[in-house]
Amino acid sequence: AGAETVRRAVELDVASRFQESLVCYQEGIDLLLQVVKGTARGRAPAGRCVAAALLFLDGKYHKQIKIDENATGFSYEKLFQEYLNEIVTEVWVEDPYIRHLHNFLRFCEMLVKGPCKVKTIHLLTSYDEGNGKAQQISGLEEIKQSLRNHGVTLNVSFSSSIHDREIRFNSGWMIKIGRGLDYFKKPQGRFSIGYCDFDLRPCHETTVDVFHTKHTKKT
């Protein structure tokens, strides 16, 4: 099964279906490593397959999505759905400007709906300035309590030095959005198209970069 999964990964790789091939490579390697550890007979062929797969994993996976000014069709579901599966149980959000709490709430709702099985969300942000600080803290506390009713823990931390924006899943996927989660434009009114359906909400221009932690090197 492991060797077949790796062969499928190679086919997808050749077809430039890199996201799917990466998933198959990882699943194939896990299966083959089980064989290597469990049986001496499977050690040689499995070892060769693992080595071949690791050649791919040593490369760099990078997907970039360009969102144009006033573009629509970029709801959180559309942006993140291919990276959310049952493996995802923990999420890290680092964004210094979590100010529009309804956007963060929509992101949390997406995680609660599944198909992922998120149990913990970590948020690292900065305090709002002036009078907005108290409202920010109160709103995040309300979101925390609501998530708890769905079996999800929200851990909130504040930093005055955070600048970068990124979202990480414990499955290894890392998404960096230039504008963070607040890339949607303000709706024209409470009863305007796009107020509820974020796929119909115009966006600010921004860039989304997708990486995998196995393809990034820390210095």
TrEMBL record:
A Pfam family that the UniProt record links to this protein: MIT_C
Protein origin, superkingdom: Eukaryota
Gene Ontology CC annotations of this record: midbody
Domain MITD1 C-terminal phospholipase D-like stretches: 73-212
GO annotation, biological process: midbody abscission
Database matches in Gene3D superfamilies: MITD, C-terminal phospholipase D-like domain, Phosphotransferase system, lactose/cellobiose-type IIA subunit
MIT domain location: 2-38
PANTHER family: MIT DOMAIN-CONTAINING PROTEIN 1
Stated name of the protein: MITD1 protein
Originating organism: Casuarius casuarius (Southern cassowary)
Name of encoding gene: Mitd1
